[in-house]
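Quarterly update from the structural biology core.
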Amino acid sequence: MWSWELDTGRFGCDDLAAALCGLAPDEVEGTMDAAFAMVHPDDVTGVRTAMLDAARTAGAVLEEYRILRPDGAVRWIQVRGAVLRDESDGAARMVGLVGDVSAVQPDRPGAGPGSTVLWRATRLLDVTHALERALTVDELGDVVVHTATADLGIIFAAVLLYGDDGQPYRSIVHPATSPVLALWPGLSGRGPAAAADVVRDRQPRYHRSRAEYLADYPDREEPVRVLGLSACAHLPLIVSDRLIGALVLVWGVTRDFDPGDQAFLQTLAGTCAHAFERARLYERQTMLVAVM
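Predicted structure, tokenized:
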């Protein structure tokens, strides 16, 4: 078991949890920073964001990720927790369970957040619920790019939407201040190069490294450098066999897009595509009502 006092920041765990992390009970430093320091570098951004979001919203957390033990061993753990409030003094703390799931989740190079069946299923459910609450295209765009940033550990996300004439008419980008945006107008085809190929053949594109991306698009060396791209996925947004846009996800670390990872990302894109189509219809109806 573990606990995190939200007002003081103090972290505590029982002897079994300490042993799982390769520590003796008196070696647990008692802070969340120390706990985050044990998370694998490729996983720490997503884990930290998920924990802080749960604390901020008084919600629950369910995460599977890698830790680095002091002896150098890498272990997969599953963390569950929820925020509780003491009725006597109103103090809030997050409490939960932690277990070793390495036996069912081999450590793969570049795995990181989003690598396990449980994680993927949970995130798809969370995203679906979040998309249901958004009405407009802009609201949906915010849900998609912020979810991708928080859950997948990406450094850049973009939703590119296309009209009935097949021409791009809207883009939602996170972060909106990314310096790479200033370079797009001067590039052939404008915008992410792989996005144009995805729109043309409706097939997703996965690039596991910067070198792999530049091998396909050697003219994009400058935006790739500015963006800090180390891996990326470009996914078509399709509804009823009709392409309505493309989803662009960029990571700052290399990523192993294994079949399970690709299936998860394509399912995520399909869920987003139907939500965007619903939002576009809603906006059109709203405009017609306003005109009448």
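Residues 2-104 form a domain with the Beta-Lactamase fold (CATH 3.30.450.20).
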